[in-house]
Amino acid sequence: MLRVRLHATVCVLAALGALAAPAGAQEIDILDTQIQYNRGQNVAPLYEGWIRNPDGTVDMWFGYLNKNYEEVLHVPVGPDNNIEPGGPDQGQPSVFTPRRRRGGAASRREGYVFRVRLPADFGEDDELIWTVTAHGKTDRAVGTLLDLYVLEAPPDGNQPPAVSLSAGRTTVAAGDAVTLTINVSDDGLPDGDRARERAGARWQRYRGPGTVTFDPPRSPFPEGTEPVAGVELATSATFNEPGTYVLRAAVNDGDVNPAGWPRVPSTTFASVTIQVRPD
Q: Which pTM does this prediction carry?
């Protein structure tokens, strides 16, 4: 099923060619890939699609493409980073990681980053719009209930992990470290050693002005294929400057969507807010 078309002009040595690649949900134009920009470019928010929950509410999923190859963008929630109606803050990131240099169009962006839960009476003619302005350029992702954007649930009855996140302390000084710990339980799906090798938690600076160093940046599930019950995974986070930070654990059970496949990821997000004071 074709959900997004990324149109790119690619320069290889002296030859120019056209590349059109399918990815996830909305159609965007990326015309700047003749030159690989390390910095100075903007963010393209992306609408992935929607799924209706058993209680009638709707989850809309969004991702993004930071068009820079090196620059991490920080766009605080507000006039330049808002979701309406109901915003400006509806759980979107303020930190946008650079695009990846390898893989197809779908794998170079950040997909299924967050979801917005909407009431059951959100209608077919209604829209949810995420707007991001960076380096003077504005892009929007428009969420609607068109059938084109319907997402599938994880296959074979797989349920996302159950996760709780705690911090050793929630106020630290710049340069200090805080220990983050998640407690994880999972149903053991999908089956197989390869899925278990992929399963684990990625630690993320989701919001906040400075740099956060995680050690380790990823915490894998224990070896084996049996269900996981009450396993603790931990990391240390160190901050280089003061501010308010939202740190997040993205915990996936090893289920991987084929590139561009319209399916909700089997991932659970858990976050904690840390206040970092000056030295």
A: 0.84
